[in-house]
Design brief:
122 residues; mainly beta; four-stranded antiparallel beta sheet; 0% helix; 50% strand
């Protein structure tokens, strides 16, 4: 019943921008913490950002602070990740995730999307 669907990935040059979208089906996003994670080939998954509408919090891991912005469009059941000034090390599969209890990027998340590939390269 619950489905998260990411879109917007692609190939971008270093310094470029890319916007990711996550469509959330089957749950009410306003009741959940929504997060973005990424995983580079051969590396562990890492948390990128989360948004808690209840606490009015937008958190970013240090490596993306000042470059990425998470936002919600709850009337459309969408969550976004705007990525600016991209670096090659930002390359990876980006996943959105949702959880009713999570308060950090280190908690367990109940629901995950399939991911969308982001490649930052010349």
């Amino acid at each position: 019943q619950v489905k998260l669907v990411e879109s917007g990935g692609g190939l971008v040059q270093p310094g470029g921008s890319l916007g990711l979208s996550c469509e959330i089906i089957g749950i009410t996003p306003a009741q959940y913490t929504i997060a973005w994670f990424r995983q580079a080939p051969g590396k562990e998954r890492e948390g990128v950002s989360y948004s808690s509408a209840r606490i009015h919090t937008a958190y970013y891991t240090d490596s993306v602070k000042g470059r990425f912005t998470i936002s919600r469009d709850s009337d459309e059941d969408m969550v976004y990740l705007q990525m600016n000034n991209l670096k090659p090390e930002d390359t990876g599969v980006y996943y959105c995730a949702a959880d009713v209890r999570a308060t950090s990027l280190w908690d367990e998340y109940d629901y995950w999307g399939q991911g969308t590939q982001v490649t930052v390269s010349t």
